[in-house]
Amino acid sequence: MKWGVLVAMLALGGCASVTDIEQTLPTMSVISGKKPEAYAQCLVQQLSRTRKAPQIEPHKDGLRVIVPQKLTSGPTAVIDIEERSAGSSIKVYESMSNVPIRPGDIRAAATHCISGQ
Q1: Residue in 97, 95, 107 with CA at minimum distance from that of residue 14
Q2: For 22-63, how does the pLDDT look when each residue is reduced to its tens digit (9 = 90+)?
Q3: pTM (2 decimals)?
Q4: Backbone phi and psi for residue 6, each to the nearest 5 degrees, phi listed first
Q5: Strands 62-68 and 75-84
Q6: H runs (alpha helix) in the chain
Q7: In angstroms, rounded to a whole number, what is the distance separating the alpha carbons of residues 80 and 22?
Q8: pLDDT above 70 covers what percent of the chain?
Q9: In terms of CB atoms within 10 Å, which of 30, 53, 59, 64 comes out highest?
Q10: CATH code, domain carrying 55
Q11: Residue 9 in contact with residue 102, Cβ under 8 Å?
């Protein structure tokens, strides 16, 4: 049973592109007191414990972090970090946003970095 769930998750999450992921509703939308660079650095540090290094690129008035899947090379999440006057606005988009048993490391890292060290 567990193998069937794993195979189904890989099949559903393996084909998404950055554009596909961004067209879903955000799974998280928050504001942080950190500037985009500081938030992105924290996020990369937290995610490095469970995944390969995310890709960071300039986006609008901030940064975009593209998080790779654990087992394949495609993206699994896109995190848009836009600069605000007193910090950042953060939106997390996940490829498997409608799957309740998706990995929780992205949400945990995004939450930790809102005000964490």
Answers
A1: 95
A2: 898 999 999 999 999 999 999 999 999 989 989 999 998 999
A3: 0.82
A4: -60, -45
A5: antiparallel
A6: 2-13, 18-22, 36-47, 105-115
A7: 9
A8: 84
A9: 64
A10: 3.30.160
A11: yes
Taking Cα atoms as reference points, which of 104, 37, 115 lies closest to residue 76?
Answer: 104
Q: What is the DSSP letter of 16?
A: -
- What are the structure tokens assigned to 75, written together? 């993206």
Q: How far is residue 63 from each of residues 14, 34, 100, 102, 108, measured CA to CA in Å?
A: 24, 13, 27, 24, 19
Q: Are 117 and 61 in contact (CB under 8 A)?
A: no
Residue 21 pLDDT > 70, yes or no? yes
Domain that holds residue 76: 2-115
Quote the CA–CA distance of 99 and 90 in Å, as a whole number: 21
Phi and psi of 41, rounded to 5°?
-60, -45
